[in-house]
């Protein structure tokens, strides 16, 4: 099973965008979480 990273990134971006519109105070946390998730998605296949 291969992951389509552009699809995953697009879905995450849409969800985070909606959350930021509803509650702007969580922006810093969402950016941090997003960066960790994207970093893990790109690194995990290199070590498998």
Features:
81% helix; 2 helices; 48 residues; 0% strand; mainly alpha
Give the helices and strands, then pairings.
Layout: H1 5-22, H2 27-47
A few lines on this structure:
This protein has helices at residues 5-22, 27-47. It is an all-alpha fold and 48 residues long. Helix 1 packs antiparallel against helix 2.
Instruction: Give me the Rg, rounded.
Output: 12 Å
- Give the assembly state of these chains: single chain
**Topology pattern, helix = H, strand = E:** HH
Q: How would you sum up the major sheet?
A: none
Report the average pLDDT across residues: 82
Tell me the number of helical segments per DSSP (H or I, 4 or more residues long): 2
Spans of at least 5 consecutive residues with low confidence: none
What does this structure look like?
The chain has 48 residues and is mainly alpha-helical. The chain has one domain (5-47). It is 81% helix and 0% strand. It is built from 2 helices and no strands. Helix 1 (5-22) runs antiparallel to helix 2. The longest helix is centred in the C-terminal third of the chain and has 21 residues, at 27-47. The model has no long low-confidence stretch (mean pLDDT 82).
């Amino acid at each position: 099973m291969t992951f389509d990273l552009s699809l995953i990134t697009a879905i995450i971006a849409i969800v985070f965008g909606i959350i930021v519109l509803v509650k702007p105070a969580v922006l810093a946390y969402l950016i941090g979480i997003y960066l960790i998730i994207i970093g893990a998605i790109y690194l995990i296949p290199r070590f498998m």
